[in-house]
Structures are given as C-alpha cells and as structure tokens.
Amino acid sequence: ILVSKLTGLSLFDSAKVFQVVIPVIFMIICMYVSYRMYNEISALVTGLILVSSYIFTRLYLPIPESVTMVLFFVGIYLFHLACRYGKAKYVLVSAIISLLIVSIHFSSFIYYIILLSVLMVVELFIERTSRPFKSYIYFLCVLAVVGLIGAVLLYIISPSHLMDLIGGAVSIISDPMSIFMGQKAMGLERY
Asked: Is the Cα dihedral 117, 34, 47, 90 positive or negative?
C-alpha cells in the first residue's frame, strides 16, 4: 500500500514491482553475507546456486513468505555476528526482525526460533565461550519484554482479542504440530 501511495501505481502494479525487487534483494543479501563470511568466489558461487534453485523462483510469488525469507536471512546473520563478537546491537536488531517476521508469517517465526536455537548450540561448541548463550538469552528477553508490552496494550484496547490470542497460544503449546498440519505449500503450480 505504501509503495502504491508513493509511486501512484495501483496495488496490482505495486505487487508486480515487489515480485522483481524481493528476489533481487534476497540474492544481493545472500551474496553479501557469503562475501563477508568467506570471500568473493564463494559470493559468486552463492549467487549462481541461488539463481538456479527452486527458492529463487518461489520468491517471485507475491506471498508473505517471500518477504520473511529476506528478513529471516538477515536476522540469522545478525545473530551469528552477535554470537561471534558479543555485540548487543546485533541481538537487538535480530529480535526486532523476529517481531517483523511474526507479524508477517507465524510459521516462519517458529522456524526462525528453531534455527536460532540450533545456531546458538553450534556457536557454543565452536566458540567455547558463553557469548552465544548470553546473546540467545538477551534475544529471548527482548521478545518477552515486547510481548508483555504488547499484551498489556492489547488488554487495554480489546480484552476479547487478548483472550483469543491466549487461547491460540494454549492450543499451540498443547499441540505444537497443529500449526503445520493441513498446510499445503504454495508452489508455482498451485499459484
């Protein structure tokens, strides 16, 4: 909607713009991260493999997962930097990105938390320091504080919506696989 307002394009044409922009941004970010972690050759190979993969064609679909893939990758990289260098600003930005992911696509948020947890364990073994664990705890604390603030604000604005949210959270905790069952991935053929 914002792009439509800024450019004067219709919503449909704005979606077409994002269909091209999001995959290109994702490829540039992946290549940059590969360059920062390794070297120029690995960045080039990353770009070539990404362009020839199925995920790149899936990014052309105007679905929420396309946007979350970009945020997902940036957030994971920032958490990796936080574990390596112990900088709180990287953890804070990663937590903010996770809040954006949860607001766009909840299943991606679950995968994000799982991947951060695994990354924290791997970084613990690689670094042999407590920095990854401290970063992870800081990340969870930021999420908890923002979640509590959001719950209080939601209670003030609409207590019934808060009860619906709590009921959904209880159902997810009691049966975690229920959020994944019955979902079909939207591929190019279904689109």
From this structure: positive
Amino acid code (one letter) for 69: M
Q: Do residues 191 and 61 touch, judged by C-beta distance below 8 A?
A: yes
Which two tokens mark 26?
Answer: 């994702």
CA 47 to CA 71: how far, in whole Å?
Answer: 18
Q: What is the dihedral of CA 84, 39, 55, 78, to 10 degrees?
A: 20
pTM exceeds 0.85: no
Q: Directed axis angle between helix 159-174 and helix 131-157, to 10°?
A: 140
Residue 45 has a pLDDT of 94
DSSP3 helix / strand / coil % (the chain, rounded to 5):
85, 0, 15
Residues of the chain with pLDDT under 70: 177-191
